[in-house]
Amino acid sequence: MADGVGGAELVSVAGYGAADRLFDGATVLCDGAMGTMLYARGVFINRCYDELNLSQPELVREIHAEYLQAGAEVVETNTFGGNRFRLGQHGLQDQVRAINVAGVKLARECVNQIREKQACEAFVAGSIGPLGVRLEPLGKVGLEEAQEAFAEQIRALIEGGPGVGVDLLIVETMTSLTEAEQAILAARSVAPGVRVVVMMTVDEDGNCLDGASAETAAIKLTEWGADAVGCNCSAGPATVLSVIERMRPVTTLPLAAMPNAGIPRAVEGRTIYLTSPEYMASFTRKLVKAGASIVGGCCGTTPSYTRAMKSSLRALGAMEGGIEVMQRDGTQKAASQKESKIVPPLLAERSKIGSMVAAGEFVTMVEIVPPKGIDCSKELDGAMQMHRLGVDAINVPDSPRASARMSAQSLCVQIQQHVGIETILHYTCRDRNVLSIQSDLLGASSIGLKNILCLTGDPPKLGNYPNATAVFDVDAIGLVNVVRNLNYGLDIGNNSIGESTGFSIAVAANPGVQDMDQEVRRFAFKVEAGAEYAITQPVFDMRVLEEFLRRIEGFRIPVIAGIWPLTSLRNAEFMKNDLRVSMPDEIMARMATALTPEAGRLEGVKIAQEMLAEARPMVQGVQVSAPFGRYGVAADVLGLAEVEVV
């Protein structure tokens, strides 16, 4: 035996050829997040998750089994932080070997079990994360010391050789190329025959956190001896896709892509990833077409994501022509079949609104909120009034602000049947799982509803039943994907439903939100998922609308501006403070001068009229709300739309 790093014994690695097929260009699906699953099971984030291999092995084993049952072909050991530096933060620096060996054993048991029960091949990958310390010259840890720390972990991961230790190594979430190099050197010294996948994590611009470009990372990692290179975690699937597209032309190695489920958000004290499994699945196809052959999930992903990604990959493999896959040499390879033989009608043929949007005509809509009881005669009268005035469509919100009201779908049907005006159904993800969503949408199409506004939905805590359970199986982006699939005659499992649902697909936009970068990113995702036009939240500041339209120029779809006629100063204060709508001080001052209810209504109508006139040249339509069911106010705003305001 030769000496390894720091005088360590070189481990025999003969017989690792079984994992070679993972690197021959065929698409391979890896598992998703381990930490997310442990956290969901009540393990506090201040625990050492790697140590659970020793203290709670059944918990770790269950998670591995769930990923394998969901379709993963590769499971990573629960050893992301299994190096002496990270374990030392918990006083476990002497447990490196024990924790890593136990992690491999748990994953191996699950893989062997799935092989026996389902007669399918699966592999164990040793997860190696960053050391969690700064290396020289920025930190106190020397390069040789870092290399030895990686070698110590790798020796434990491959202990026992092929079939007992790991089948391959995945060095992931590397923030620095220098640190990634030390991990590769350690692997090549201790385990020269074991395949090594190395993935960097990047910022929102697609650059490594040490400043290196994606292209430089791919070139350097290739030179240093990685067997596959790529990107994981980061700012979600769109960012990782851009990195894969940049890496493909500069390396012939297999590419690995394992994005997290978008940027996490804090909701009621918990960290929530709102990107849906369906959205991740749609990007899985894009990643493969861009050249990635090793795909999986990172933070925020669960077995439901793995299952959706598996379904997406099966659909990709069954396509009939027209789908191009980027090869290692930069050339394109077409897959064999199309995803669906059903092509939805053109947008202009799906509905009146779709026709107007497609033709570039200016669309007028009025929002009518469903009643809290079973009598909707007032709402039907309001719709009839709007129809007589020539309004093009009625928008019907879906339990706005999480209030309990008549179903939007029911009111839409009654308006179309009794009034004859077209409706736009607001549809939220708050209250429904993916089964209910599909059932509702299939039913909506069958009874003549053809326009869907896809929304995530307000959380229940905003409504009159704050303890109600929220579902959020998908968010608005995932919902757009579901509706688009149905338009192509496919359910979320890519099974045929026989014909297209023929929906026009609208999404919401909030030009006045504080985090404009996030709003623009999500809007881009919605467009990518299949959105065909957008309806904004109420706009009171044209500068905000102009800035939003400028930011989305690269992926602009028709935008319909929301207009809300204020009724009083209190109403304006509510919009500004409770709903966080961007409200200029001059509008607040104008409403403050209205000393009577009638004066407040008139001033609100005048402001709304001004907003409409100013927005008209910039947008493709307007949605006017009828505050507190006052449809005459909406009529006044629209009746003044053609009058020049001085």
Poorly predicted residue ranges: 1-14, 318-324, 334-338, 640-646
Radius of gyration computed on alpha carbons: 28 Å
**What does the average pLDDT come to?**
87
* C-alpha termini separation: 90 Å
Strand order of the largest sheet: 1-10-7-6-5-4-3-2
**Number of DSSP-assigned strands:** 20
Strand content: 5-15%
Q: In this structure, how is the largest beta sheet organized?
A: 8 strands, parallel
Tell me roughly what share of residues is in helical segments.
Answer: 40-55%
> What structural class is derived from the secondary structure elements?
alpha/beta
Using the alpha-carbon principal axes, give the shape: elongated
Number of helices: 23
Could you describe the 3D structure shown?
The chain has an 8-stranded parallel beta sheet with strand order 1-10-7-6-5-4-3-2. The chain has an 8-stranded parallel beta barrel with strand order 13-14-15-16-17-18-19-20, surrounded by 7 helices. A two-stranded antiparallel sheet has the order 8-9. Helix 16 packs across helix 17. It is built from 23 helices and 20 strands. The N terminus and C terminus are likely disordered. Helix content is 41%, strand content 15%. Keywords: Methyltransferase, Transferase. It is an enzyme of class 2 (transferase).
